[in-house]
Structure formats: structure tokens, C-alpha cells
């Protein structure tokens, strides 16, 4: 007869150590969030929620797109981020920038940003607050939550309503034709990366001379 203890799965000391480290890191992260000096705008203050089909850009990509938006918007420009929270958070990190920004987002956790947060559901593309005037943004950055024609179509209505002209769209490479048809945007050379690799090839599209080529 085998020893009874053999039936109990034992975790190797290596696995245990890794687990402890993981929990410790998690606690530290939580601790950071509650500690005084926590910057609510830094990436990670709100973590991606896959159930809302949210996929954060890598830090580099978010910075690059934020920089492009600021340049495109110009001095005292207004930037709208439609379902692109990681770019919004990057823009917020640039304190004292001479631009203003709004985030249109389905995820109500972003309401911590106060006035700048606008609840947005792409199924109702023009269901926007009255004080959000048409064509009042120098550039609109949009990343429709789903790779579907319907989602792009509806988001496009919102983009066209908000923008004075400039559009920076991030979506799958498969949407190239649709994007050109709906918004007159062309694919850039710049390849956006996500913090986790997505299965679909992802690209940026613009309708103006950008720094992304």
C-alpha cells in the first residue's frame, strides 16, 4: 500500500516561492493604489477588463499615440479619446500640457476622471451630452472595442460628429477597406503594440499627414 501522503498534491518549493511572490506583488500593487502618492492617471491605476473587450496598448505605443495626438491637436487643442483609455491615461500623465482631453468610455470606472469622462456606448453613437458640441475636437483618437463592421460603422458616426477633421483610428488590419470607406483614413506604417499580444494584426489609420509614417 502506498503512503497516504502521496495522494496529496505537493507544491514544489519553487512554485510556492513564485506564488508567494505573486501575492506579495499583488498586495504591493493594491497598497500603492491606496497610498497617498498614488497617481490616478498612471497606466495600471485602472487595469484592463477583458470582459469589456479592453486591451491596453503597450506603454511605448500609448506614449507614441499620445504624442501624435498632442502634435496633431496643436496649441490649446482639444483631444477626444473614444474607447482608447490607455492613450487617455498617457495624455493625463503629461501634466500642464497646453491641450484638453475627454474620454468617451463604456467603463464607468473612468468616472474617477470627473468632468472629462463621458459615458459612451457605441450602440448609441450620438447619445452624447448636450455640452459636447459637434466638431469641437481638433483630433479624435478611436479604438472601437470590437472588430466588426457594425461596431466600426457606429463608432464612425461618433468620430465624425466630434472631430473638426483629424482622425486617428486604431483597429484591425482586416478593417482597412471599411475604415477608408467610412472615414477616409489610410493605414500608417506605425504598428501599435498591446501589453498582451492580440491574435489579430492591429494597425493605425489617419486622414491627415501624421508623424506615424
Automatic annotation (TrEMBL):
Localization, UniProt: Cytoplasm
Domain of life assignment: Eukaryota
Reaction equations catalysed: L-lysyl-[protein] + 3 S-adenosyl-L-methionine = N(6),N(6),N(6)-trimethyl-L-lysyl-[protein] + 3 S-adenosyl-L-homocysteine + 3 H(+)
Pfam families given in the database record: N6-adenineMlase
Keywords: Cytoplasm, Methyltransferase, Transferase
Main location per the UniProt record: cytoplasm
GO cellular component, one term: cytoplasm
GO molecular function: nucleic acid binding; protein-lysine N-methyltransferase activity
Biological processes, Gene Ontology terms: methylation
HAMAP family: Methyltr_EFM5
Record-given protein name: EFMT1 methyltransferase
